[in-house]
Amino acid sequence: MRLFIFGLGYSARAVVERLRPRLEAVWGTTRDPQKLSDIAALGVPPILFNGNSDVADGLAPRHPSPQGGGELVATLRGATHILVSIAPDETGDPVLRHFGAELAGVKPKSIVYLSTVGVYGNHDGAWVDEESACRPVSKRSRQRLAAEAAWRVFSEQSGVPVAIIRLAGIYGPGRGPFERIRSGTARRIL
Question: What is the DSSP-derived secondary structure letter of residue 120?
Answer without folding.
Answer: G
